[in-house]
Design brief:
By secondary structure, the chain is an alpha+beta fold. It folds into two domains: 238 residues, no CATH class; 161 residues, no CATH class. The chain contains ten helices and twelve strands. Strand 3 and strand 4 form a beta hairpin. Helix 5 runs antiparallel to helix 6. The protein is globular, with a radius of gyration of 21 Å.
């Protein structure tokens, strides 16, 4: 839901961030993908039971436990965010003409996205639908929409049509999100939009084409804050340092928007977590398929070495979880809203007050190199076989057993801090983590 792959047409995207000169490097970051059907007997994405925050909210509305309030300016947006516990300060805005609502999106009417760890909500001024994407406990990302018309008991409806763009190689072959960066496009009717998926491994110079980016920093080159449609010279702004933009005031009419910001730190967090979500989903699905076959199920998807498949999926997930390939920050940055403070204050913390949500923002995104997404319900719901593979790979890296490049980027202090925090905050952590000696 963050962005749609229709981006390779003249119009029609959802969330954007890909590159040009570094396209080869970005593509090289792609790892394994789930190669079976989403409706494999072990998965049942289309018909299986779903358990997520949107289903829960629908139930509360239906039972009268919660009532959504409609506003003429932005419909149910504010009420939905409050119901889901999503901070207004998480707002990021994208103006590349992407998503199913591309005809409404422009630099003077960007799409606003609000998110927490497992839910993203998207709103466009003038829209008839509010969109949501949620990380289901078992099924990966599930997509929903809510009509922006007053009703006694409004309900989100599942929308699997989104999978036309949100089940691709870039989402690892599972239903998922992607943050895209788009290149400027001329007015030539035969021109095609181009771009690439970005996450914390992508250089900041190559991120945010088609996005507004607000924050405090020394000038540095990135792709944001410049028009991406009907430009005279598509190459004129590439590689040019951007001055800091402290708010969206003056760029377009802000009526209806819930924040003055498209916070750079929120953008970086969103980029990190959407790929992390896809990795968790893929790990769960691969493991369920292995277990199905081991239990005698008729798996006709090939003759993979399933032990190797699980180990490779775990290695890829752990590499990303521990930020071993993270692109360094070119300059120190600071968000323009209170997103950083709000995000970092959330639990859990250890007895020393340390948290995996603490930011660094001088040299890298997070102070401690282990993703807070390890606390999500979807991670906790992974099959035991998956979590065993993940934890054993984490231990190999964090204990120092594997110090080859790129794992030598993790300092002894970082590895010790991550282990100590996890021991106190992750209840299902295996006992062998207690044996850390550095």
């Amino acid at each position: 839901m963050v962005q749609c792959c229709n981006m390779f047409r003249r119009v029609g995207f959802i969330l954007a961030a890909l590159l040009s000169v570094t396209a080869v490097a970005v593509l090289a970051q792609r790892g394994g993908a789930f190669r079976a059907s989403r409706d494999h007997p072990a998965i049942g994405y289309s018909t299986g039971t779903v358990e997520n925050a949107i289903v829960s909210l629908n139930r509360k509305i239906q039972d009268g436990e919660f009532q959504l309030e409609f506003n003429d300016g932005f419909g149910y947006l504010s009420s939905v965010l409050a119901a889901l516990g999503i901070s207004v300060e998480s707002q990021v805005t994208v103006f590349s003409p992407t998503s199913n609502q591309a005809t409404l999106i422009a630099s003077d009417n960007p799409r606003a996205i609000y998110f927490r760890d497992d839910v993203s909500v998207a709103w466009v001024r003038g829209t008839t639908l509010l969109e949501a994407a949620v990380q289901d406990v078992h099924q990966g990302t599930v997509f929903y929409s809510l009509p922006q018309t007053p009703a006694d008991t409004p309900q989100f409806t599942r929308d699997d049509q989104c999978l036309a763009c949100h089940l691709t190689w870039d989402t690892l072959g599972v239903p998922g999100l992607q943050v895209l960066s788009t290149f400027p496009l001329t007015s030539d009717p035969n021109a095609y939009a181009t771009g690439y998926v970005s996450d914390h491994r992508t250089r900041l110079e190559d991120r945010w084409g088609g996005w507004y980016v607000t924050g405090s920093h020394e000038p540095f080159a990135h792709m944001g804050n410049v028009e991406v449609t009907d430009v005279d010279d598509p190459n004129a702004t590439i590689g040019v340092p951007r001055q800091q933009l402290l708010s969206l005031s003056g760029f377009f009419d802000l009526e209806g928007y819930l924040s003055l910001h498209s916070d750079i730190v929120a953008l970086m967090v969103l980029e990190h977590q959407v790929h992390m979500t896809n990795l968790i989903t893929r790990m769960g699905w691969e493991t369920r398929r292995v277990l199905y076959r081991e239990q005698g199920g008729d798996d006709r998807t090939g003759h993979e070495d399933f032990e190797t498949l699980i180990d490779e999926a775990a290695r890829e997930l752990v590499d990303y979880l521990l930020f071993v390939d993270e692109a360094p920050l070119p300059v120190p940055i600071q968000g323009s809203s209170r997103f950083s403070q709000t995000f970092a204050s959330r639990p859990p913390q250890d007895s020393q007050g340390r948290s995996l949500r603490e930011f660094d923002l001088e040299h890298r995104l997070m102070r401690y190199p282990c993703s807070y997404m390890i606390y999500t319900e979807a991670f906790d719901a992974l099959p035991a076989l998956a979590k065993d593979a993940i934890y054993r790979r984490m231990w190999a890296v964090l204990s120092g057993e594997d110090r080859q490049t790129p794992y030598d980027r993790l300092s002894d202090d970082d590895r010790l801090a991550v282990v100590e925090i996890l021991i106190e905050t992750k209840p299902d952590l295996p006992e062998f983590f207690q044996n850390f000696t550095g």
